Amino acid sequence: MHLLEMELELEYTEREWKSDVEALERFARTCRAARVLTLDSGIWRALCLRTYVPPQQIGPEEDALQLVKQHGNDWRRFYIEHPRCRLDGVYISVVTYLRRGETVSVYAPTHLITFYRYLRFYHHGLAISLLTTDPPGQVVRRLNPTLRMSGLSFGRWRLRGDLVEVWGLEDPSVPEERRKYSLRMNCRFKSTARGRMNKLEMLSLATENRRTLEVEDVPIRPSKPFFFSKVASYALEDRVEQAVVEPHSARSPSVSIALPGGGGGPGIAYSPPRSPTPGSFADSLATLPPRAKRLLALVVALVVVVGGPLVLRTSGISEGDGSEYESPFGTFGGLDERVTAQRPPRRTANDGTPRAGLFKPLAGASSNNPSISLSSFLESHFGAPDLPPREQPHVWLTMADATWARTGTAALHTFVERLNVERRARYGRRKDGVRDTKLVVMCLDEECVETVAKYKGAYGRDTGGGYAYAGFMHNRPEQIFASTWPKLAAFIEVLPHRDLFFVDSDVAFRYDPYPYMELLMESYDIVAQENDSWDHFNTGWMWIRSSQTAADAWNEVLQMDMKQTSRDQNNFNEMQVLGTALLRQHRDGGDPRRKPLLSDFTAKNGLKVHVLDDNVFRSHHFEIDRPYAARDRSVYVHMTCGDDTLTKVFVAKAQGFWGDVDGYYTQPPPLLTVDHLSGTTEDVEQLMKILLTAAHYSNRTLLPPSHATFLDIPSTTSSSSAHSTRQIYSSFPIPHIAEALGVGIVEPRYKGLAARELAGGSVLGRGEGVRADAGRAEKDGAKGKAEKIVRLAEVVELDMRHTPTLSSLLSLLSQPSFSPSSAPTLKLINFDWPDSQHWRLWRLPRTL
């Protein structure tokens, strides 16, 4: 291609595509040679670098050159898969509802009301919102910064992940001094059958009082999602026409924080329009001299002869097939234009069973049983249960709703995928090879199925998604808890034929558990976690050997639950099933109930049981109840009594038991931190509020200290201490604050854990060094990871003695020397300097 450019005397500009992408794909579909030409990475690289520009389409700390590595360094895949706001059209929401009219005599009319919401985005951050009853045909051509009509608002926008944040929406026709309120909106991209990321679902709408900065949610019902519609006249507008627009708020976006005393910021600067560019590839060819056209025709002919068969071989499509593969990424550009792509990984078994599905009962069936049983699901994906053990994977069952599927279960999946590749690399050459582990999520709702289907592989690539089975949603008896039924039903159905692991979604792994399990699995029927409660063992992590006796035991638990609802763990350990409490007592003449209890016993039904070492398989509540439990030896922490879901997740992270879920550690954000939090309760609260405000307005993530010291609260553990020092997550509801305010907060050990992950720390065990598959794991490049580790250690200090007001602090944070690129980690210092504690009197956002 470069030689051709030189021969044609064309300037090399990375082959930037000037027309729209649909034209490129239409040209590619004309013949195989055209497809070869359009797969040139130079075209797609130029498109991506022109599209994914901070701070709108990606964050200021992100770079397209780094993001492409998440898509296998394939620029075309990057352009197809990565979320982006479309600027060549408008997002339209159509809402229709019925309203009663005024009754006159016997005449009672009903009105059908239809109104439209329009959203248009510009590359420099301008967002135009319009609420009107005018249909699209009358609006879209006029929807630009020069428009003035009722229901029109101008604001700012940015895209973070798949979340679109729009803020500062104000009516441009109202004078600045009369504007009392602005609107803010949060939407999330969704994909549909007609296209990828072409649907915007409104999550929230709120008003902000510009004087008091109070934020109040606005009901969004009735409301319908926005759908993208391309507008031909927009496609040529890389720059909006220069227009005079009234100033509006330039504050940073958030769902709930507002800066006191904030006013309007500077107006938006617009760039003049550029000269029109050729409308198609054919227009560019028409300008070539005759000799160049003949040479180009010769090159195309050679590509057809030589490249055509190569395309067929590399794409896996036989010549006899002749059909073109339609990408599941959906529409690409217009509503009806499809994009061809390389065949993605399979999402079904050989017999067509999907990896993730609801498996609803068949229409007209006489029962509510799922259309595919769990046993059939496992056999389709993992083979028949009578295969030799070395040919079967270890099957881990877990349960999750939508929230857990995004958090704890996602971490489990990340760990399992990482464990598989490391075990293959380390042990794959031994005599019988190594057995993989497969995590199967028994979903409690539909959103869980959708989430698990999007799970990525060990290297952050799409490998077909995770395994999700939601069949037990449909046949649960009313007496049984929704979170108990899948576990009972799975054991009763599957244990007669297949060994099973069960793991709760609040179990967070750090190291490989198999070295502590595999020998025991040869001698026992049940291997389970210690619980230290009512002399039971914990059923949140256990392995059970396949047998009818084990299945019958769980069936007995089900019958007990049908009579009186209880936790399955309690019933399974009770006297009528296993008889755990009595059988674990000591029989040497001493105290029969001294701790620890016996770890080996034979249950009433003959099953041989081993209870695992609680130093290795640790529960969170052992930190309080069992001070001898050694955290450094633990392969996981089970958040048994760790409060709600968000708190369980944060505490697991704080104790070092979390994985690189969605780049949590390998894509470190800019951080804001402080050395310590100490003072009276009022002082500590004020300091925390200042940190949250500063983090929000500087677009940083808060890195809190590990503990907070309250000088006016006596210690609960020492009668001689007049103050109390607590873990930061015991001092504040950290994850709930983060969720409510939209401010990222990481665990105190984040920097060390991120450095370990970037350096390639192994999950095979403590002392293993770097991961066994380190050669393949360098998807980010050794140099890129080393640079991130170096930046994690770079800290810039900001002296609080130089900030007499909150406004002065926020002004300093906006200076280039304190920007994320200059200061990866920003530390606030000298809070407690005598005579400089003016921060005590600062008036902070009321939301806090």
From TrEMBL:
Residues 322-357 are annotated as: Disordered. InterPro entries: F-box-like_dom_sf (IPR036047), Hrt3/FBXO9_C (IPR045464), Nucl-diP-sugar_transferase (IPR005069), Nucleotide-diphossugar_trans (IPR029044). Belongs to the glycosyltransferase 77 family. GO terms for cellular component: cytoplasm; SCF ubiquitin ligase complex. Keywords: Ubl conjugation pathway. The lineage of its organism: Eukaryota, Fungi, Dikarya, Basidiomycota, Pucciniomycotina. One of its GO terms (biological process) is SCF-dependent proteasomal ubiquitin-dependent protein catabolic process. Residues 437-649 form the Nucleotide-diphospho-sugar transferase domain. PANTHER family: F-BOX ONLY PROTEIN 48 (PTHR12874:SF9), F-BOX ONLY PROTEIN 48-RELATED (PTHR12874). Residues 69-216 form the F-box protein Hrt3/FBXO9 C-terminal domain. This is FGENESH: predicted gene_2.293 protein. SUPFAM superfamilies: F-box domain (SSF81383), Nucleotide-diphospho-sugar transferases (SSF53448). It holds the Pfam family Nucleotid_trans. The gene is FGENESH: predicted gene_2.293.
